[in-house]
Structures are given as structure tokens and as C-alpha cells.
Amino acid sequence: MTARTSIPSDDVWASLQQPARESGSEPRLRLLLAALDMNWQIEEPVYLRPRWGDHGLRVYHFILHRPCDAPRLITVPESSAVESFIRAEGLKVLTQLA
Questions:
Q1: Cβ neighbours of residue 13 under 8 Å, at least 6 residues apart?
Q2: Which of 26, 47, 72, 79 could form an S-S bond across to 61 if both were Cys, CB 3.0 to 4.6 Å?
């Protein structure tokens, strides 16, 4: 017999914030995908903005929501993988220039 415990939603979110165990792929994109697997939804538009302190580099800001939870923000560095994800999902992107 095994005991199952319910994890409060804030604890589940905190577990998503833990460092990635795998190496080589994009941890922030994996974090976003894991949140989507936990029934979070992306609120459009997605924002593409310059990264603070890094000239020329940009990041995507994804605002996530789920019923009965406060909205969350996941920032993902610009890459071909995240751009492919955005295209595949048909997400609207607003770009802010420097």
C-alpha cells in the first residue's frame, strides 16, 4: 500500500522552478512545456523584448494562466526551437524594439 499526497499548486509551481536535470537542451523552454503539461495556458500575445543588459539578445515573455491560480511569467531566450514552438502553436507575438 502506498500513500499519495496532494501537492498544493504553489508547491507544484515551485517544483517547476528547480534546475533542469538534463543538459544540452533549452531549460527555459522545457520549463514552459512542463507548465503546459500541468494545464497552464499561454495568454496571448507573447512578448519578444530585448534582454536586459545584453545588447542584441532578446527573450520571449510568456504569460501563463490557469483557473484558481495567479498568472505566471516564463521568460525564454530567443532560439530556433522556441520560434518553431511559437509557429506550431500559432501564437501571436508582439515585438518591442530597443
A1: 69, 72
A2: 47
